[in-house]
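WARN no homologs supplied; continuing
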Amino acid sequence: MTSKGLKSVALALAAMATSATTALAADVTMNVGFGAPEASIYGRFGAHFERLAEEYTDGEVDVKLRCCNQIATEDEAFKAMQLGTVDGFFITANNVSPHWPLMDVTVLPYIFQNKEHLARVLDGEVGAFMKSKLQADTSVHLLAFGPALYRDFYNSVRPVNTMADMEGLKIRVPKNEVMIATFEAFGANPVPLAWSETPTALQTGTVDGGDNGTSFIRDMKFYEFEPHLVILEHFVAFSPLFASDHFMKRLSDEHREEITRAAIDAGIAWSEEVASETEEVREWLATEGGMAMTRPDKTEFVAAAKGVQDAFASERSEDFRDLLQMIRDAAE
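OK structure emitted
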């Protein structure tokens, strides 16, 4: 072959290689998992994220939502992202704490005084610090905190009007030290269970009740066997979207920015929907769902919660105490 022919072949091969690289770059799939049904808060947040991620990247990142523990359970997902075997996952904040103990600060009962305080924390310097610190400590990326839902309490035994009514109730709690200590302070008997075991435990009466974000109680149809709904708002439940470092490194710098922006914008859009829905869902649970709803005076609960906050602050690391103080300072 002549030198001219060799040059032509080389140019053709180079063009093919460039084309192949471009095709690969335009064919990145992000599998995002969650443990609940597609119609749950996770699925609906995920749908916002999927739409925006694909819009912002001009379809070059294809988001696939995987509900119902298809790719991992909540208890397994964080470690899987550290290992790079899962691309992304929605994990309730309290289930992150075993892997990153500082997350327990946000799990502390009544730690946020109101929605304005909550917004200042998550959208400001404290939230940015938490994202940076978590990535440095674990390699996992916290893309967006997502909507904040107050957890409502439910049980199958009796209405709760005062803290005394909590006495002796067997309450399912996640395997989280703060949540266990909180229900102990409230006078209940907490029973730590993985989420995957919870629906069966509630249905069979192994536990008397539990707590979840209001929409989740409806999504999981807990109203079918838990007749008492109690509006305590003792914990704020986040549904953050996380991504593995392995996945993020597969993206170009531009796509990393677009994926992060899509997560934040999806969280904002979904938060606005959640804010208007919470009371509507409570009303639905109390009417069509058939639950008897009570709204106890929170004074006793808040006092007990303050003791839990102080106890954990004294036992945990200096980093924990510093982050707690940052959150408290943001209330002023």
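The longest strand covers residues 148-155.
OK
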